[in-house]
Specification:
Two copies of one chain form a homodimer. The first copy, chain A, has about 270 residues and is α/β, with parallel strands linked by helices. Chain A has 13 helices and eight strands. The complex binds adenosine-5'-triphosphate (2 copies) and magnesium ion (2 copies).
Chain lengths: ~270, ~270
């Protein structure tokens, strides 16, 4: 079982879109996949067609009331499930501030969950608060969706620093196993420059000789190209494969899934 | 003096880019403009070429240690100043949780500020936490940068609800005076559909007859078109006008500034 946190504190870089479409791509290969939506805006849930319902419990109840994940999980397609979020989660930062071991809540809920999956994928909000820290403490791996823009690259050192802190204090097995280039605009100088900067940054951080959580991080060769159909799919509450199976977006996410599966051999 | 919060809890919709470029466009007309960077990632500061320096106080010190804004403000161009942010601001949510009147801290600092500007523009982080609430309590007006995508539109009702709460409990004069369409891709069906949905939503919310903070909200006619030069300008730490004065981005932000100035007559 691979437990992966999709995180990046920069907003709008493709975290949710990648969580949903990569999860769907892996499910199409027969692997059992569970998405956990940790964003109070519940965009991953919405994108999978699971809309907020007044009295339905959500991941908020898991964290604040210890409701088992199995009671919250709903089907979202063949081999695909989602533990939905809701807006109450926005209060979790303050509500959990005084809870002992607040960073380990999700990890313990997942350990108690009888159902096993091939992949558990956690969509994180655009911040480094208690929800993202819960995901990093529960995960074995981190995938970093990244838009090849300057402001998105600017935050990588803080992202790495946070992952390092969690690895040292809360979750020694945590590694950054992949960086996913999203909304890639082929042919622009900016994309090429940012990619160069990123590669240089990885090489430089490795030269220190110290083993870090990103020492073995790879930049996936598949670029998720900017393609309006990917954004349209969200408005239909379906992954890209159900909406427009022959577009760039479907090919790119299928190709990314193949690279992710190829990593399994090495694990 | 107009005090404007640029906010949208959805990530990556163009808040920072619009704060910086609209502020620069207004400054080019001779108006005195101060940007306040309330995002812990300090992207507005970086985009204005004001890089984080160890030991330099920031808006964190204003909120947590009551340092006057005048001591924090640095020049960022002709008629343009910025009160920079820093990463310590990320802890403000938890650090201020127990502070009495934590939502009014920025409002009171601004009231004490001897220097008066024509425009004060606050860049908010992608959340509805204490930093954004401080901006809404200190502001007279809200501008909502919005990418014409489904997930961005999805959050508008929560955004309006939050502004309504702040207007009722903390700041009765607060209104949403403008919605700015960013990263607009002309000719795509999605942009046109989202724009229609947004217009319908505004009409519907007005029909209730009750006066709300968005009753007079206008969708600015200027669309900020997607244009890679706008993203490139951020990596040079300059507003678009200094980087590429003849591109779509410069024309769009200049046109937006003209619409914003035209609103002054009505104020
Ligand atoms: N490859 C793509 N091509 C075109 N549009 C895309 C692509 N990937 C994502 N988008 C759109 O870009 C916007 C940002 O993506 P998304 O919401 O997945 O990012 P995020 O990092 O999850 O944002 P947040 O920080 O708010 O959680 C969305 O409107 C989405 O539909
Ligand atoms: N008109 C545009 N054309 C092309 N790229 C743009 C445009 N406006 C903004 N961008 C780029 O899109 C990305 C998102 O914009 P920006 O960072 O301003 O959004 P934001 O809402 O402030 O994000 P966050 O939620 O992280 O604070 C940035 O990399 C920016 O350079
Ligand atoms: Mg998201
Ligand atoms: Mg921003």
């Amino acid at each position: 079982m691979r437990t992966i946190a999709l995180m990046n504190q920069k907003g709008g870089v493709g975290k949710t879109t990648t969580t949903v479409n990569l999860a769907a791509a892996l499910a199409r290969t027969g692997r059992k996949v569970c998405v956990i939506d940790l964003d109070p805006q519940s965009h991953a849930s919405t994108h999978l067609g699971v809309l907020e319902e007044a009295d339905r419990p959500s991941v908020y109840d898991a964290l604040v009331n210890s409701t088992p994940l199995a009671e919250l999980r709903v089907p979202a397609g063949d081999n695909l499930w989602v533990v939905p979020s809701d807006i109450n989660l926005a209060a979790a930062e303050v509500e959990l501030a005084g809870t002992v071991g607040r960073e380990m809540l999700l990890r313990d809920l997942m350990a108690d969950d009888p159902m096993k999956f091939d992949y558990v994928m956690m969509d994180c909000p655009p911040s480094l608060g208690v929800l993202t820290i819960n995901a990093l403490t529960a995960a074995d791996e981190v995938f970093v969706p990244l838009q090849p823009h300057f402001l998105a690259l600017h935050g990588m050192s803080k992202l790495f620093e946070t992952v390092d802190l969690v690895a040292r204090r809360l979750n020694p097995k945590l590694v950054i196993s992949g960086i996913i280039l999203c909304m890639y605009e082929t042919g622009t100088r900016l994309s090429a420059e940012i990619l160069n900067d990123l590669e240089d940054y990885l090489v430089q951080t490795r030269q220190s000789g110290r083993k870090t959580p990103w020492t073995d991080a790879t930049i996936f060769r598949t670029r998720i190209r900017r393609n309006i159909k990917v954004a349209e799919a969200a408005s239909f509450g379906r992954p890209i494969f159900d909406y427009e199976p022959a577009c760039h977006g479907s090919r790119d996410y299928a190709s990314l899934a193949r690279e992710v599966i190829a990593q399994e051999m090495g694990i």
